[in-house]
Specification:
Number of domains: 1
Number of helices: 3
Largest sheet: 7 strands, antiparallel
Shape: globular
């Protein structure tokens, strides 16, 4: 399963939720759209409603952000896990990681991932 683990001394999870904006990325052969963001009551889980269209295949799913101490895990929500994990699905997770790292005040680093190729682009 595609995933990214981010670590940092002070991960401001609520700030990630509050400051995450709806976004659409359009390229020649794909569209990635972040629709809504949800935070659970215990404030340790964020779901980002995501839609991707690649090669005329439309997929809707949630990207899950889970916080544990100084670590944040990004992955596909197991309940809405898309059947076709095409490059747009993987790019969507990498985009969320880039947004979090660029918007965070304290330094964060990616410590583990199987999406390295999608983080470079």
């Amino acid at each position: 399963m595609p995933h990214i683990i981010i670590e940092g001394r002070k991960i401001n999870f609520e700030s990630i939720y509050v400051n995450f904006n709806k976004m659409v990325e359009r390229k020649d052969n794909y569209i990635i759209k972040f629709d809504d963001v949800f935070l659970n009551q215990s404030k340790d889980l964020i779901l980002i409603k995501t839609t991707v269209i690649e090669n005329n295949i439309n997929q809707k799913y949630y990207i899950q952000l889970m916080k544990k101490e100084n670590q944040l895990t990004l992955r596909l929500d197991p309940i809405t896990d898309p059947s076709d994990k095409n490059s747009s699905v993987k790019k969507s997770i990498a985009n969320v990681a880039r947004i979090i790292i660029s918007n965070h005040k304290d330094p964060l680093s990616i410590t583990k991932t199987n999406l390295q190729d999608f983080l470079i682009k």
